[in-house]
Design the sequence.
DNA sequence: GTCTATAGAAAGATAGAC
DNA sequence: GTCTATCTTTCTATAGAC
């Protein structure tokens, strides 16, 4: 057997990693299977040994993107829940995130792209969206009075703030937007 | 002259109308020039008498979309500023808007699509984004203490709420999201 | 499993007739 | 101004050699 199972799994993972980065950056249609494979130092033809088609790698890339993003990292023991949540919100609504200098959150980077896709993809989006809200809820419950409505508003502000920031052409406006969302989000979360 | 100037202007407007609807619904790449022209009962070849290329009609479609959307309508004299702003926020964060049963706001429907485009398109987006914030500021100044930060947070919530709502697969979650954003947005605007 | 080659389809843009 | 025809490119997906 010239190729081990381990090798196959690693190749698959490499493709998925490129996929999550490229689809976030450029959207479904602007990324070709050739692009994905070139980033993995492979050629087009090899793609179909790993994924059924383009849509299926896109769907998996969403999950992969969340796995790598800051939001799903474990809280360091040195921080309180409140400190950690503050750090997460600030990192989310940051220039680095908007400029994609850190792993992108698919919830913000892919939101419009996903709206036009099939059930499978939207179901994945819905799932990770609920996870984000649940994670914040859990981190807030001990030190805050905020309820589910507050949290839904906060995540809309976070996702919206980052998505809008990416579409703007004016760095000053982006910075004002991000800082406003940071302040108002933390205000809602710390009440 | 077999075709009048008026006829040309009308044809152009018809194309633009299809463009604003289709690009909002499906995104840049999923709409072909053929699609646009078929909706105007014309064929591909005629397109280039009206627009330079696909990108330029996309750019104009953003402006056209805003022109038709609720947000730019004039306030009826029978309503106070406060009543009108409440109506606008509620209409924006509504199921009808998310489902595109009323003209779509490009700020929400095209946000990710635009992030990956060239300067011209992003400049247009930035302009209408600022217009939205300015319009709300003007409507708020007489009855509310809210500042620019509040307004930026509110519009992020509005745009984010609608964009996320479109990507979700679960009507209950969408409804909870929309109603939470409505409540929190109006809370910020009425303080 | 990965490669090259290619089939087949779609779409942007142009040319020339009317 | 609008039509049909066409050039050209790009891309998904498959076939077959290694």
Sequence:
């Amino acid at each position: 057997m010239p190729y081990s199972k381990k090798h196959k799994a690693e190749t698959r993972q490499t493709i998925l990693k490129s996929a999550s980065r490229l689809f976030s950056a450029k959207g479904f249609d602007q990324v070709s299977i050739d692009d994905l494979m070139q980033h993995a130092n492979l050629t087009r033809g090899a793609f179909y040994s790993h994924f059924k088609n383009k849509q299926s790698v896109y769907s998996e890339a969403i999950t992969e993107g969340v796995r790598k993003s800051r939001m799903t990292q474990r809280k360091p023991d040195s921080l309180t829940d409140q400190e950690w949540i503050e750090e997460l919100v600030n990192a989310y609504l940051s220039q680095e995130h908007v400029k994609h200098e850190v792993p992108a959150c698919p919830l913000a980077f892919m939101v419009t792209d996903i709206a036009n896709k099939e059930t499978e993809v939207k179901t994945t989006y819905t799932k990770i969206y609920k996870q984000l809200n649940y994670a914040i809820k859990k981190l807030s419950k001990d030190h805050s009075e905020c309820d589910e409505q507050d949290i839904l508003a906060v995540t809309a502000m976070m996702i919206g703030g980052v998505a809008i920031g990416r579409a703007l052409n004016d760095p000053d406006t982006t910075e004002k937007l991000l800082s406003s969302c940071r302040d108002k989000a933390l205000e809602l979360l710390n009440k």
Summary: Residues 2-3, 7-8, 11, 42-46, 49-50 of chain A lie near DNA strand C (CB under 10 Å from a C1'). Chain A has a mean pLDDT of 96. Chain A touches chain B through 51 residues (CB under 8 Å).
